[in-house]
Amino acid sequence: MSDSKQQVLISKWLDQQLTEDERNEFEYLCLHDAAFAGLVETASRIAMGAEQFEQLSVPDWNKSATFLSDDAPRWWQWQGLPIASMTMSLVAMVMVVSGFHVEVSGSKLSMGFARVPDADAVAAIVDTRLETYQQSSQTLLTQYLDALNTQQQQNSAQLTQYLLSSSRKERREDFAELVKFINQQRTDDQRFVARQINHLQQEISAISTDYTVTNTPMELNDD
Amino acid sequence: MFEKSDEHLIQKALKGNKKAWFTLIKRYESSVYHYGVRMTGNAHDAADLMQDIFMSVFRSLENFRAEGSFKSWLFRVAHYRCIEFYRRWRPEQGLEDVPEPVSTAPCPEGEILSDHVSKALTRAMQNLPLTQKAVIELKFFGQFTFDEIAQQMGLSPNTVKSRLYSALSKLKLDLEVENV
After folding, report:
1. How many domains does chain A have?
2. DSSP helix/strand/coil, A175
3. What is the C-alpha to C-alpha distance for residues B144 and B139, in angstroms, rounded to an integer?
4. Which fold has domain B6-179?
5. What tens digit of pLDDT does each residue of A115-129 get?
6. Does residue A127 fall inside a structural domain?
7. Do A71 and B51 touch (CB under 8 A)?
8. Residue ranges of chain A with pLDDT lower than 70?
9. ipTM
């Protein structure tokens, strides 16, 4: 049998992967091939020697030398600490330059910048300004109303005077028209009456003529 | 009681937790030290190799992908550090299939091992080339499969099996001599 076949058998035997046929072949070789049996025996001896190998105590050695990185940094060795410190310094500078202030009034703590008053102060300022503005507005309004009243009175007087003067003139003209109208009516009435009289005269004349012609007493009584 | 996993300890060690790294070392230092003893045959060299291995493991720790076991990855690193150790300190000894030169000096492993079988086995392994020695070490002492050994050594499984076969042939003779 070739060495390669024997290698395979020994390898599978060591890994406990022999099939039934291979196991039969393996056992046959162990019985009939002294060299193969010697190898199997050697492997068994080594395996047994490995299991029973004397356990030596590990000598003290420098384990720290194998730890090639630095220890985990402590909190005060934190790399961000200088950056945080510098940031805080910058913030402090900005606070100083910008006039940051803290006020404690009673139980109220207020923080802010000096250039910008807080809400209450703003409200007070606004109230004051509104009151001043209201007062000035009231004064101006009063003055305006007074002036308006005065002007209104002057306008009313002028209008009344105008109306009075214009009424007189119109009434005079109206009376003149009325007189003229009445006179015209009277003229017309006189003309009408004259015409009636004339007409009556004519009728009377006509009646007298007829009476003369006929001379009938009965007709005279009837008229 | 609730032992932390290797991956958990690795993550903490990567974040600079020295205690986690020491716990990981404590878990594997005995295996690595015994590996060093059998691979170098010398307690002093084994200690040096162990430190070199753990330094290399720490340096490469962030490259560890939890696709396989940490132990397998650890012994892969150990194998390459062992090759480097041989190249640096024992250039006269063969890495591949070149037989080890027979040394007449007293074996230093005799100074630390008192058990006869362990001593004989370690002494016999010192006569193997490095790659064969590594296969024996990983197969019998590390309890790895051939595929795992092949992956750790960067070889094909068939090559690993072939080297194991050759190693067994040599060890057979040496162990028989030991028993005489």
Report:
1. 1
2. helix
3. 5
4. Rna Polymerase Sigma Factor; Chain: A (1.10.1740)
5. 666 688 889 999 999
6. no
7. no
8. 1, 69-74, 114-118, 213-223
9. 0.81
